[in-house]
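Hello Y.,

Per our agreement to keep a running log of every chain we model this quarter, I'm adding this entry. I've kept the format consistent with earlier entries: sequence first, then predicted structure.
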Amino acid sequence: MTRVVCLPGDGIGPEVAGEALRVLAVLPLDVEVETHLFGGAAIDAVGEPLPRETLAACRGADAVLLGAVGGPRWEGGDVRPEQGLIGLRRELDVYANLRPARAAGVDLVVVRELVGGLYYGRRGVLDDGTVFDTCEYHPTQVERVARRAFELAQTRRRVVLSVDKANVLDTSRMWRRVVSEVAAGYPDVELQHGLVDSVAMRLVTSAEDFDVLLTENTFGDILSDVAAGVTGGLGLAASASLGDAAPAIFEPVHGSAPDVAGTGTANPAAMLRSLALMLEHSFARADLARAVDEAVERALSSTPTRDLGGVATTSEFGDTVLESLATVSVA
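Predicted structure for the entry above:
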């Protein structure tokens, strides 16, 4: 039996996670699902965003399905929901974040290094009030995420664009050197290098030119949102965060959207696409992943939610996905 830990989180997180669990329940899989507190909901209940019980459950799972975290009610405090997310990524060492972006003529994946760089480097406040955050990377961190990107490219169009700021930053110069060394082991994949500012512009003007984009944590955070923006918005964007061992984390890219939480109008497409990534990477069921992706595509056309100009509720969108899956033969 496969164990999945669901972390609904905050805002619309429980609503979209609920739709993913409805879909998971009808698939021909032997799955046990546990639900645990995480993010702001965990702060409210036990005073910390990543309770020890939740972390233990995640470590013992085969996959983690995450809704969303954060919201205005927890902003400005010393304990924030996002600290739980960063901590969970570090504890599970899910260093490769895959962010697919697809639309008419566009089919790219951002491979973002997820447990290094500015978000995890040394930080502090000096006596004169200066505040600093440090971007730190070890060559082995770059090497392992680069290998992920090249292996992924071998299953696609065999082009990796490594994104950095090597004209300014020492970390980027090291990044470029290590990626080039890794590339030598993948002669069937073309390696290109690009500076983050020019790549950001090219994403907006010619996203169809890209295959696999490889980059560090902060640049990847920004560029993957740009890629989502040019292919339909964050409401459609899924992600998979992978390490060298289970579990991986699967989550929509969007936030907790507290302004629509509880209204039943949230778009669950990104959550369902994240479920499809889980089926592919944690269950090795590419057939089921395709079936879910195709059902989501049909629902986007026939039953759009309010953010896409339609009137469907969250559950109505989910109903359409379930109806589509009922017509698909999967074993």
